[in-house]
Specification:
380 residues; alpha+beta; 13 helices; 9% strand; rod-shaped
Length: 380
């Protein structure tokens, strides 16, 4: 920020043009005094002061304060130094703080007041000359400080715009990252459910090789279809993580899809007692319905992984204003899980339920059964 607001040294070509213009003004000042016989005797001094003041102009641009003070002091001896002194005062006002600019302007004012005492302008009373000197230097000071303040304001606004743009970019990146995480978690739930079904069918083929050819062909067809679906869903997960917008438009499950989910698990050989005591679910918010679906999906997936072959009980109750409650129970198995688990399914499910404003509890019951219980808000 300080670098943006700091006054910058003029480009080299600007210095060259300014020195040339000042030299022309100095020459015109000297020539303009020649018709006045009283000023003709100061011609040698004017020439010397004029050359010296023009020679100091590079110092005015490179070291504004010392250079401006030097040409201001020369202006006390000859009007030939007035153009360089004016440029020096303006240059300081453009590039230096107010206190320094006021000091240089005051020195320039005093020098020109001294110049007016011993080289007065014919026909111009000293009082009006002094007023003119004060007005000119005040104008130079105001012009320079106003321009500097405007440049600093523009630099500040530019810096704030850059910061705002960077902040907006960071927020967009965070939002996209959160959205991608959400989509990847959604696909994880679907993929885990699909793979657990495939493992169940494969286990049935392994342990019942004596089944009829029709049943074996049917199970193989289900596995083939499930593999294709799992590959498609895995491809979607990869594309999501690659930041490709392929997830948009994918139909999201609702509370009404619960029964189809249960029937799918039953078709895979799971024994499920499903008790839906919801009379009318039309007032259930869609987000709550999706969360309820994912809860049951995760519960059935875990039951197939860790307690394959054991019955599962699913109880869904609630009404508007009282909330929605979901409870899944199944006997706990001490055997080897059908599929290895990462342990992140219930963690992600807990986060999902908490984001929905509900609570989730799971663990072993005293009798050895595993229970998964969730409570979700259902506005009246």
């Amino acid at each position: 920020m300080d670098e943006l607001c700091a006054p910058r040294k003029p480009p080299r070509y600007v210095e060259v043009v300014a020195v040339g213009a000042v030299a022309v003004l100095v020459g015109l000042t000297i020539v303009g005094r020649l018709p006045d016989a009283g000023h003709r005797r100061f011609l040698p001094l004017d020439i010397v002061i004029g050359i010296a003041s023009v020679g100091l102009m590079p110092l005015v641009f490179r070291r504004p304060v010392p250079g401006a003070i030097a040409v201001a002091v020369l202006a006390a001896f000859s009007p030939a130094a007035t153009p360089p002194s004016t440029v020096g005062t303006l240059n300081v006002a453009l590039r230096q703080p107010l206190r320094t600019s006021v000091m240089v302007a005051a020195i320039g004012t005093v020098s020109h007041l001294v110049q007016g005492l011993w080289q007065p302008i014919e026909g111009l009373p000293y009082f009006w000359y002094a007023i003119l000197v004060f007005v000119v230097h005040a104008g130079l000071l105001g012009w320079g400080q106003g321009t500097q303040a405007r440049q600093q304001l523009l630099a500040s606004l530019r810096d704030r715009a850059l910061r705002a743009e960077a902040e907006q970019g960071r927020r967009v990146a965070e939002a996209r990252s959160l959205e991608r995480t959400k989509m990847a978690r959604e696909m994880h739930d679907v993929l885990a459910h699909r793979l657990s079904l495939l493992a169940t069918y494969a286990g049935a083929l392994e342990y019942r090789p004596d089944s009829s050819p029709e049943k074996l062909a049917k199970a193989a067809g289900v596995i083939r279809t499930g593999v294709h679906q799992a590959l498609d869903e895995l491809r979607e997960v990869i594309n999501v993580l690659r930041d490709e917008d392929v997830y948009e438009g994918r139909p999201q499950p609702t509370f009404g899809d619960l029964r189809a989910l249960v029937d799918e698990s039953r078709a895979a050989g799971s024994t499920i007692a499903y008790d839906d005591r919801i009379a009318d679910s039309t007032s259930l918010p869609p987000a709550t319905g999706r969360t309820a679906y994912r809860i049951v999906q995760e519960g059935l997936t875990n039951a197939r992984k860790h307690a394959a072959g054991y019955p599962v009980t699913v109880l869904v109750t609630g009404h508007p204003g009282d909330g929605l409650r979901i409870e899944l129970t199944n006997p706990a198995s001490n055997g080897t899980p059908l599929m290895p688990g990462s342990g992140t399914g219930l963690v992600g499910l807990t986060e999902r339920v908490q984001l929905a404003g509900g609570t989730l509890d799971h663990g072993r019951e005293p009798g050895g059964a595993f229970r998964l219980e969730a409570s979700l808000p259902w506005p009246s």
